[in-house]
Recover the amino acids of this structure.
């Protein structure tokens, strides 16, 4: 009998809890930095005379830390986020470029929403107080009204993109539950799935050593050959 390493695909419960804890951990550091940014701002609670440049810096921090935590850290350590490492799970790159696949994995979850927040901050920082307040009011989905001025059009486009991202994330959550212990549509879209870091060893028949398939929700070591980078 020959021994083969088998890796367990993360189930829905593990995926959801790791995502929640990753988000809490990353946003905790973002909030700490934001507190320092607005520490000496006398107008931080003023909806009229607020410091747009501080919000722009806070948005840059938001985009940067989310990108570092959810993309660069998993790419550099070739495994996963900090919570995934603690939980003994890791990313498995199924094919193509790992960095690009990680970017696609977080595209609708963090990347697009983060850059929309950055765009909003840039617009507010480059406009006078009146236009900035109009744009902030227009970007609210429940207050937005159709118009052909640049504020209404820009707010409408950003709102449509945000709604699409929200729908995608709802679909991601539902399909994660439905596809418990299997590759989810998000995995197939990004070519990245989540597997256990610790392999399970099983014996295989010598006459069937070319078989690389196993039980549903499991991957053998032959699935992982040549596609990790």
């Amino acid at each position: 009998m020959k021994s083969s390493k088998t890796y367990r695909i993360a189930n829905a419960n593990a995926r959801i809890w790791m995502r929640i804890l990753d988000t809490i951990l990353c946003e905790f550091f973002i909030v700490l930095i934001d507190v320092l940014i607005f520490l000496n701002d006398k107008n931080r609670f003023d909806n009229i005379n607020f410091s747009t440049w501080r919000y722009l810096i806070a948005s840059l921090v938001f985009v940067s830390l989310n990108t570092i935590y959810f993309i660069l850290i998993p790419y550099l350590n070739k495994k996963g986020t900090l919570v995934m490492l603690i939980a003994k799970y890791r990313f498995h790159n199924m094919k193509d470029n790992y960095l690009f696949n990680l970017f696609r994995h977080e595209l609708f979850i963090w990347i697009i929403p983060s850059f929309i927040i950055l765009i909003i901050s840039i617009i507010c920082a480059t406009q006078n107080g009146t236009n900035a307040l109009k744009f902030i009011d227009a970007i609210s989905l429940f207050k937005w009204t159709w118009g052909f001025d640049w504020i209404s059009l820009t707010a409408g486009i950003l709102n449509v993109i945000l709604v699409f991202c929200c729908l995608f994330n709802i679909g991601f959550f539902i399909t994660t539950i439905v596809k418990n212990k299997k590759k989810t549509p998000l995995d197939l879209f990004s070519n990245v799935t989540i597997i256990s870091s610790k392999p399970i060893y099983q014996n295989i028949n010598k006459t069937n050593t070319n078989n690389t398939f196993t039980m549903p929700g499991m991957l053998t070591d032959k699935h992982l050959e040549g596609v990790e980078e």
Notes: Residues 207-216, 225-229 have pLDDT under 50 and may be disordered. Residues 18 and 83 are 6 Å apart (CA to CA). Strands lie at 2-8, 89-93, 192-196, 200-204, 218-220.
